[in-house]
Amino acid sequence: MTYPIPPVSVEKSQRALTLLDLVAVLLVLGALVFLAEASHGLAQPLPEPGVSPITLDPAALPGYAARTTLRMLAAMGLSLLFTFTYATWAAKSRRAEFVLIPLLDILQSVPILGFISVTVVFFMSLAPGRMLGAEFAAVFAIFTSQAWNMAFSFYQSLRTVPEELGEAARSFRLSPWMRFWRLEVPFAMPALVWNMMMSMSGGWFFVVASEAISVGDTTVTLPGIGSYIALAIEHRDLGAIGWAISTMFVVILIYDQLLFRPLVAWADRFRFEQEMGVTPPGSWVLTALRRSRLVVRATAPFGAAWRWSYRLSTRAGNQGVMGGRQGRRGRRVDRIWHAAVVAVAALALWKIAQFVLAGVPLAEAGRAFLLGLATMTRVIVLIAIASAIWVPIGVWIGLRPNAARVVQPVAQFMAAFPANLLFPLAVSAIVAFRLDPDVWLSPLMILGTQWYILFNVIAGASTIPSELRDIGTNLRVRGWLWWRRIALPAVFPFYLTGAITASGGSWNASIVAEIASWGQNRLQAHGLGAYIAEATQAGDFHRVVLGIAVMSAFVVVINRTFWRPLYARAERKFRLG
Amino acid sequence: MDNTLLLDLQAVRKAFPKPDGGELLVLDGIDLRLREGEIVGLLGRSGSGKSTLLRLIAGLSVPAAGSISYLGRAVTEPPPGIAMVFQSFALFPWLTVLENVELGLEALGLPREEIRRRSLDAIDLIGLDGFESAYPRELSGGMRQRVGFARALVVHPNILLMDEPFSALDVLTAETLRTDFLELWSEGQLPIKGVILVTHNIEEAVLMCDRILVFGSNPGRILNEIKVDLPQPRDRLDPGFRDVVERIYVEMTARPAAERAGARAERFPGAGIGTILPRLSSNLLSGLLEAVAAAPYDGEADLPVIAASLHMEIDHLFPAAETLQMLRFAEVAGGDIRLTPEGRRYAQLQTDERKRLFAQHLLTYVALAAHIRRVLDERPSHRAPWSRFSDELEDHMSPEAAEQTLRAVISWGRYAEAFAYDAHTQMFSLENP
């Protein structure tokens, strides 16, 4: 590449250059050092049983935080890889789509926390005696909490690439490789980045939960914030818990500033709507990286390599026309394929039933179902309470742009904060006041997920056109009538998006929230979450699988029969514009 | 003029499968030849399959029958040497002007320096100098379409396909772009050898084309070919120009001598239940009636004249005029529209009386409206679901056309207060709140 402007030019730009370059170089080097530090110790052997590698010394926290963060990053990388392959395959092949998409849909609603125990055993057996196996298990657990919605969003974007852009790409004979990186990935980027943020928020919750796991007799403790908290709980050390919480705050803040702000600001250019939007999101990090000539120069070879890959791919040959409809033969192959899929599914069902029934009597399924009803009641009541609190507040904030600008990021931050870090505080209070765990453990389930309701409602209220509000004022529509006719219909679709996320998250959280301990005190509520957690601790995989299956069934049925129809109706009736 | 044959289409036919296993014929018996140095226009209203034909030529889809050959080779995939300009510009919003233009060359796998040089040349030629680093969202519609042109020209195609390239632009901008393009074309500055232009704007076709193929609908087919021998640059006010425009209007309003065998749904004026109805508001119909009834037309107007004065393109004007004809408020023939006595009376009436007259004509002459009313009258509940009629219509037309037809008749039925429709319950009824 040639540079139109020589690196040494007038004094003013040179000064800006050095300052921004310094920032950029520090950012890059800092990232490298961080990676090196954090990955140190991966290959260490497992510590002797009974010897805890964790100390409650606050000075060790930054190191733990780094390890936890690295796990998150690794999982995010895996999730991206999964997204680009799985979703692309599903979008390009009709036959693959037939299996992959329903599968993804189910995986989205399965309680991931229940999986951890199963996967830990599997990964430990892959690298016996090494930390690496446990690390893999943790990363995999986070991956399972992040990947599905990202893949889903990417798949949906691929399916909705504007037709004329697709035609332009084909008429200019872009190779599939070039089409992917030049058209499909950019088009999917804004939605993907948004889902990455959501995934990351969810991921913090799981990374904390997956660092200290005991399956039967085996206890795995990975150095990280999660295991630090677990140890603090064991020692009833409120001070240490305070330290951990503040560290987490700082970590999430750094993540937000260094990773997601720049990503969101960068992804803004991929928005498809061509209108000049409202003020585009900004990020000081991105600005620094973009303005720095050193970074531009350092990344230029990558750009060149990328273009070179385009040239290679064009030489490999172009794709032909979209084939006409398959004839009778294609349809017959389809039928065989469908039959094969059904057969495999039936076999899997048989295997699962066999596995579960080998360990537990059939009546156990009835018990799990009843416990599921208990958890469902909790989730419904909690969502109702949270809605009653946050909808009015969200509308109030959303109608005041200044307030929204302050509160919106705070709410998103709260959603990202792993609520399970706060559990010990709540549990110690319940113990101290001798409260009924069946009632008082419940709010923990929604502690982290209620924010989805708040920030979606804020987003909804801020989209109410000012003309609509003006006509309301003009016609003197006030009080309950105003809520009924203007505010609630306008935010309803947004509220539903938030409520669906919150409800799914609460089911998941029930696995860690319905059973809690504080030193020697153990609190347990009656519910399916507690059932799964208990079975995990006992190493009873038959019951774990049964619990997960029942919980998945609950979530899927509720989604299909309640949330989705409601959402479709809201989309039809209340969507503005 | 050089007579090299660039493109040769013979007996091209295109059909889309219907869900019930049948097929919907959109193009039938298309013969088309493009020679070097020619601009050929495909003129027709929406639904006449002209854009579909353009996509067949571009290799973006394959014909059901017939042959398409470009420079003697069959077109089975997008061929190098045919580039396209899109109605909606189809620019990549995340690429700058320069990157958008470079895209086609990158796909050819050319060396970096050549890509840069040729792109800058194309940008220069098309008048985009200084906008290289702008993103499409920062540009006006006219500038965006210039990028569309530069992107197509940079690959040095033999044939340029233009799909209504000026119809998304305002009148002035479109005129400027047309003039610029024609200037470059007649000066021989463009690398292209032939152009196919899809349009529904008659004057645009006469301004730009050497030959105009007039398309008919259901199925799309070529009705007639009109040669335009006027010298470039052409003047809209030139009598020769007006003559050609008038000829095309006459051509397009001529009643087909006999409906072709195989045409599943005739359009007008029989107005049987299988007629596809255009979605036009009663306001537009009333407006056109009033305009024709008023001075200086006094009930009889030349279509090109009224099109110019009302700024209506044929996409709106023809369906509106033909709907009036179907309702027996007007007659359309020979490029003219003439009001019937009822049409003149309608223009004089007040709102309520208008509605009554409209209802009377709607239920008498539009078979579908009469049918809906009859079904509602016969049922004890006086209610019927949407699907009751959409299923019936889909025996005659595509699901999209059926939906459009039902929506049209609902809108007219509401105006006439002949029947009501509730969008949430999807029920027709006789209730009139």
TrEMBL record, chain A:
TM segment ranges: 72-91, 98-124, 136-155, 187-207, 240-260, 336-359, 379-399, 411-433, 439-461, 482-502, 544-563
Domain ABC transmembrane type-1: 65-260
Biological process according to GO: transmembrane transport
Record InterPro entries: MetI-like, MetI-like_sf
GO cellular component: a single term: plasma membrane
Membrane topology according to the record: Multi-pass membrane protein
Location in the cell: Cell membrane
Coiled coil: none
Top-rank lineage group of the source organism: Bacteria
The entry's keywords: Membrane, Transmembrane, Transmembrane helix, Transport
Pfam families: BPD_transp_1
Family per record: Belongs to the binding-protein-dependent transport system permease family.
Protein name: NitT/TauT family transport system permease protein
From TrEMBL, chain B:
Keywords recorded for this protein, A-Z: ATP-binding, Nucleotide-binding, Transport
Protein name: NitT/TauT family transport system ATP-binding protein
Claim: Cell membrane is one of the keywords in the record: no
The organism's place on the tree of life at top rank: Bacteria
Biological source species: Tistlia consotensis USBA 355
Family: Belongs to the ABC transporter superfamily.
Example of a GO MF term: ATP hydrolysis activity
Ranges for domain ABC transporter: 7-242
